[in-house]
Every structure is written in structure tokens, then in C-alpha cells.
TrEMBL record:
PANTHER family: PROTEIN STAR
Pfam families membership: Methyltransf_21
Record GO cellular component, one term: Golgi apparatus
Name under which the protein is recorded: Methyltransferase FkbM domain-containing protein
One GO-annotated biological process of the protein: endoplasmic reticulum to Golgi vesicle-mediated transport
Organism of this sequence: viral metagenome
Domain Methyltransferase FkbM: 28-216
């Protein structure tokens, strides 16, 4: 009989990672609220732990409540910079180190929409929505090196590094010594939308970076690309993939809801009480 593995991630990368080890350690950059469509929430529920980083303070606050035993940081991850320009987007996704061209293209190709495709209606991009910060501001950023040196003080082996930063991948990887920290598996979301929004070289840069640092391509889950740091981990990854292909393991998707959508549907504003209502609702789903 097939064994069920649940997934909170629409691409199911979390179900794959859940089988690489028991109670491992992750670093999740661009975690948002760390629940809906997230690659490490399942791992957290399975007894893993780690560092979760998101630049948006409102989403980081939700994550702190959802994951009280993780180290959750509200900060920009890029380079060490006291004055980093950042787009804080109410959705959490599409917030990124500011790129004027990318910011304007998102309005046309991603963030907009008509009728049923735009459930949130017309929103001023520089005013808070549902209580979520929505603006362009300057804040301090820290490199991933600095974050790991400060917060992984016991030098725990990183089993999974997940990066989902909506177009700021180069800024993070350029200032990250991946050889020093040597995560076993690296998962980077590369938006397909970037390919038609303009001449953005994120995918090319990421692939070259991983190759130059001797990381081995393993597989993709939709927009999530996974590499590993050794032939041993590559074999482990292939063996896990075969278990899914043979139906030894089957994925049961947990259909969570984005916190903004939850607040909008229930006519609520963001505060600690509504955050806890949201988390209680998520927990009722599984």
C-alpha cells in the first residue's frame, strides 16, 4: 500500500525534502508567512527546525506566531548594506530588492488582472492594504553569510536551503559563500514570468553560479529547481524521486489559503487576533 506524504507546497518540493532525513535543518529565504505554498512548513511540522527570513515585517510576524520554535528574522537578504531600496508588497510575494524595470513590469503582467482574476480589486501600490505594509522604502540588508554567522552559531549542517525572492536571486548569491556553508540541497524558485517580462538574466546567472560552485542539478518541481552538493546526495535524491514515480509514496495536497485572501474573504484586518484565527484555520485542514 502506498504511503501518503502531505504537502503544503503547490509544487510538492516539501514532500520530497521531508524524505531526505529526519528532523533536519533548513534555511528559508523569502519564507513569507511560512505556511501557504511554502517549502518548509511541512518540515517544521515533522520536527525539523531552522532559520526563516523575510523582508516584509508583517509576514515575518505571522511566521513567528506560526513557527514559535524557529528563528524567524524580519530583514532583507542580499548584501551587507545599510540603505537597501526595497519594494514591500502587500501580497508578500513580489516584494523584492527594488528593480525599477521589474517593478513596473509586474504591474502589467502579474499583479493586475480583471474580474475574477483580480479578487482584491483596485489597490494603491503605495498604501497599506488589509493592514499589510505596501510601499517602497530603504532599510538595512544583510548577506546570507552574515545571517548564518549570526544565527547558526552552532554551525548546524544545512540540509535544505530554500530561496524564493522574486527576482533578487543574483543579489543574494553574489554575496553568499556557498562552499563555506555547503547546504546539502538547494531549492531556488525561478519565475517563468521573468522570461517574458524583460531581459532578466536570473535563470542564466543561477545555473552558472551553481555549476561554478560544483552543485549538481537534481530535478525541478514546476518553478522550483533543486541542486545537491555531492554525488551521495544526488543518489539519495534520485532514490526518493523513484519512490514517488513508483507510487511507493503518494502526495496528499493540503489546500491552504493565502493570508490576504483569508482576511479579504472574512472582512478582517491584520492584527495578532486575526493572525491566530488564520493559523487556527490552517491547522484545521490537516
Amino acid at each position: 500500500m502506498a504511503k501518503k506524504v502531505i504537502s503544503f507546497d503547490r509544487c510538492n518540493a516539501d514532500s520530497f525534502f521531508s524524505l531526505i532525513t529526519d528532523k533536519g535543518y533548513y534555511v528559508d529565504i523569502g519564507v513569507r508567512e511560512g505556511v501557504h505554498d511554502n517549502k518548509t512548513f511541512l518540515l517544521y511540522n515533522n520536527g525539523w527546525s531552522g532559520i526563516c527570513v523575510d523582508a516584509h515585517p508583517d509576514y515575518a510576524n505571522i511566521c513567528k506566531i506560526a513557527r514559535p520554535t524557529d528563528t524567524v528574522l524580519s530583514m532583507i537578504c542580499g548584501k551587507d548594506d545599510k540603505n537597501c531600496k526595497f519594494r514591500y508588497n502587500w501580497r508578500g510575494s513580489f516584494g523584492s530588492i527594488y528593480n525599477e524595470e521589474l517593478d513596473s513590469k509586474r504591474k502589467l503582467y502579474v499583479i493586475g488582472g480583471d474580474g475574477e482574476n483580480c479578487w482584491y480589486g483596485e489597490i494603491d501600490e503605495n498604501k497599506n492594504y488589509l493592514g499589510f505594509k505596501n510601499s517602497i522604502e530603504h532599510s538595512e540588508s544583510q548577506s546570507l553569510n552574515t545571517i548564518l554567522d549570526k544565527y547558526n552559531t552552532s554551525n548546524t549542517k544545512i540540509d535544505v536551503l530554500s530561496i524564493d525572492v522574486d527576482g533578487a536571486e543574483q543579489e543574494i548569491l553574489k554575496h553568499f559563500d556557498i562552499k563555506k556553508y555547503n547546504p546539502s540541497f538547494v531549492c531556488i524558485e525561478i519565475e517563468r514570468a521573468l522570461e517574458y517580462m524583460g531581459d532578466f538574466k536570473e535563470k542564466e546567472f543561477i545555473f552558472n553560479y551553481m555549476k561554478e560552485h560544483d552543485y549538481i542539478p537534481l530535478c525541478t518541481f514546476n518553478e522550483d529547481y533543486i541542486w545537491c552538493n555531492s554525488q551521495e546526495n544526488h543518489k539519495l535524491g534520485i532514490d526518493i524521486l523513484k519512490k514517488f514515480e513508483s507510487k511507493e509514496f503518494v502526495v496528499q495536497n493540503i489546500n491552504t489559503i493565502h493570508p490576504c485572501n483569508y482576511l479579504h474573504k472574512n472582512k478582517l484586518q491584520l492584527n495578532e487576533e486575526t493572525i491566530r484565527k488564520y493559523i487556527d484555520y490552517i491547522n484545521s485542514l490537516y
